[in-house]
Amino acid sequence: MSLLKARSRIAAARAITVLTGAGISADSGVPTFRGTEGLWRSYRAEDLATPEAFERDPRLVWEWYNWRRELIATKQPNPAHLALAELERSRPDTFWLITQNVDGLHRAAGSRRLSEIHGNIWKVRCTGCAVITDNHEVPLPLLPMCLQCGELLRPHIVWFGESLREEDLRHCDEALRDCDLLLVIGTSGVVYPAAGFASIAKEAGALVIEINLETTPQSDLVDLSLQGRAKDLVPLLL
Ligand code: BJW
Ligand code: ZN
User: Fold this and answer.
1) Do residues 11 and 49 share a domain?
2) Is 118 annotated as catalytic?
3) What is the per-residue pLDDT across 96-124, written as a single tens digit (0 to 9) for each?
4) 36 or 175: which carries more pLDDT confidence?
5) Candidates 41, 191, 215: which one to mutate for ligand 1, based on the most atoms within 8 Å of Cβ?
6) Are strands 119-126 and 153-157 parallel, antiparallel or unpaired?
7) Looking at the predicted structure, is the pLDDT value of residue 187 above 90?
8) CATH number of the domain that residue 86 is part of
9) Nearest CA owner, ligand 1 atom 57
């Protein structure tokens, strides 16, 4: 399928769902996880992004999140984030965005109909009373404690081995089964359950288009795999 054909299929689609990963924010200067310059090159995921790591050494985990908050605070949405927000505005009732990113850049770009399935780095959650609050302090004084109950706060992020929120999963499942077009942008497609989303939409009959710098484990199953930068290809497609 050509880019031109893809554009006309997008324009004609009844319902569009989009799945994004770290690659879309790479063009804003936010580091990805995997690949030569990814975070997991310098940091071990199991030391930082698991509930066990936080239990063992909450200060180390919070220091890593403070560093990332500081970095992300200086970043802006790029043309790919903005094009998706624009697409939502043009068809609010038939659009859903699923992002694995925790950086908040889709919201900053104006997206509102979205599920942040791995959480948000600008929210904290109490390990005692589970209350979730917005928090934009940079750096956050360590260790942060809950004002309601005095227990330790943690990042409101889904770590390895933790379940995604039931409500998000339900919403994603609906959006994947109901869409006739799925765009998969800038994700390596190895982290579940999101890695299974393209095949759910495909099996339900949707046209699936992938945009990535490289091929992924999903490239063979999608209808069109476009290689290039999200910030160039997404505005071009939409
Ligand atoms: C560009 C670009 C440009 C670059 N333009 N493209 C089934 C099988 C095997 C294992 C499991 C399974 N089901 C569940 C699991 C366990 C685990 C898992 O999937 N492990 C695999 C790694 C094997 N999953 C979980 O634990 C999940 N929980 C769960 O399933 O609960 C049920 C359960 C409970 C108990 C036991 C088992 C199951 C939770 C996963 C949470 C993931 N959280 C993280 C880290 C949070 C830390 C933080 O951010 O602070 O979320 S992991 C990390 O990876 C982060 C991301 O959201 C996620 C996905 O990464 P993403 O976005 O794809 O980024 P990259 O870096 O991998 O890829 C970037 C891509 O962009 C690349 O392809 C580039 O080419 C491309 N790119 N520049 C376009 N300019
Ligand atoms: Zn509390």
Assistant:
1) no
2) yes
3) 999 999 999 999 999 999 999 999 999 99
4) 175
5) 191
6) antiparallel
7) yes
8) 3.40.50.1220
9) 100
